[in-house]
Amino acid sequence: MKVTVFGATGQIGRLAVGDLLAGGHDVTAYVRNPGKLVRSDPRLVTVVGELSDEARIRQAVRGSDAVISALGPLLRRGSAGTPVTDGTKSIVSAMQTDHVGRYIGLATPSVPDERDNPTLKAKILPAMAGLLFPNALTELVGMTTAVTQSDLDWTVARITRPTGGKPKGTVRAGFLGHDKVGSVMSRADIAAFLVAQLTDDTFSRAAPAISN
Known about the structure:
This protein has 6 helices and 10 strands; from the N terminus they run βαββαβαβααββββαβ. By secondary structure, the chain is α/β, with parallel strands linked by helices. Helix 2 (about 55-60) crosses helix 3, helix 3 runs parallel beside helix 5 (about 135-150) and helix 4 packs across helix 5 (about 135-150). Helices cover about 35% and strands about 20% of the residues. It is globular and about 45 Å long.
C-alpha cells in the first residue's frame, strides 16, 4: 500500500515509518524538519510542511491508500492554540477531497468512545487531564472529533502511558468497562498496532483503548 504518515519524526511516528517500510509499503512522511527523520529508503518520500499548510498536506495525501497519524498535543502547561486540531481538520479535508478513505490515528482514554462503560477510570482520566493539561485535552477532543464526525473509515487507538524499549509483542485492545486493558504500552507495540490496522477492520470506526 501507499501510506502517508503525519507525525513521522515523533517517537511513535518514526517506528511506524520503519514498520511500514519493513512491510513493503510505500511511505510519504509529512515532516516539518526532514533532518529528524534519520532514514533513507527508495520507498520513502518526504513532504516538508507545517500543519497549517493545507496545500502541502493535500500534496502528501494525494494518491495514498491510507493515512496514519501519530500526531498528538503538547503535554505542557500553559500551551495555547489548537494547531493539532486544525491540522487534523486539514488532513481529513484533504483525504475527503482526494478520496483517501482509511485514517488511523492516536488519542487517549480521556476522550471517550461510545462503547465505553462509565467506569471510575473513564471518569478520572478526563478530569485529571483537564486539570493538568487543559489545552492538551482540548486538542485531543478537537482532533478526535474532526475524525470521528467525518465519513472516513477511521480507527483511533487510545493510549495512556507509552514507554520506550523493545516491543513486547502482546496487545490488549478494547473498551473501558468491557475489556481488560491496562495503561502501559511500548511505543514499538503502539506503532505496530497502528500499521496492523491497515489490513484489520476489527476496529473500523471505533476508538479502542490499547495496552500491553
